[in-house]
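Annotated sample (chain length 247).
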Amino acid sequence: MTFSKILATTTIVGMMGTTAFANDINFAQSSGTIGAVTFTQQGGAGNVISADGVTSAAAATVVGSLATLKMEQLGATNATSFAITTGSSSAGNVAVLLDGSGNTSALAVSQVATDTLSYSVSIQGNDNTIDSTISAHSAVVNIESQGNGIDYTIGQTGGLADLNVHSITANVSKIGDAAATISLTQSGLSNTIALGTPSAYGVFTGTGGLTLNDGATFSITQSADAASYTADHTIAAGGSLTIVQAN
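Output written by the structure step:
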């Protein structure tokens, strides 16, 4: 694997800037095994973690086995973008903590049929966007969010969709009158979605389920022989909720 020409089983990257400069990290793992990589960015707005450290359009690539990837971004208009491909049986954990506003987090995961993934996102602030596509045998997604103007798209699928087991647990609180869009899509053998009490990560307590003040669009699509959806909803006037379960 390659990471700034440093070989290690545990890597911690920390960057601190001022309000006048953004922090940029470019990352690539080409093969092998890493135990843990932790990115911590502190300072001004416009922090980027990607393949080139310039734009989130170029996803940072991970090929091989990365047991734990943790990203902590403090400030505003932060962006992380990762594309993970595993070639052998492994268990992975991705944790994203975005503390601020205008943050974006993009993740694409492609795994073999025996892989598992735990993906945790904790966001505090306004105008935050998550866009994730996860292909794995067993993918567990935990989301904790509090703020306004949220936009989340989470998709769980795979080449052998009939054999995949997926779950999403989310605690989402949206305040204010900015538009919100949440879309959760699953295909597999057994799908579960529960809104309320995700595993603790970041600063939230994991209670409350889904609270969307003012206008919001919330949609769930599950395609499986066995699908379940449980939630505690508060959606104000002007919002919409659409749930589709089909096999």
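Annotation: Residues 1-21 have pLDDT under 50 and may be disordered.
Annotation: The first strand starts at residue 10 and ends at 16.
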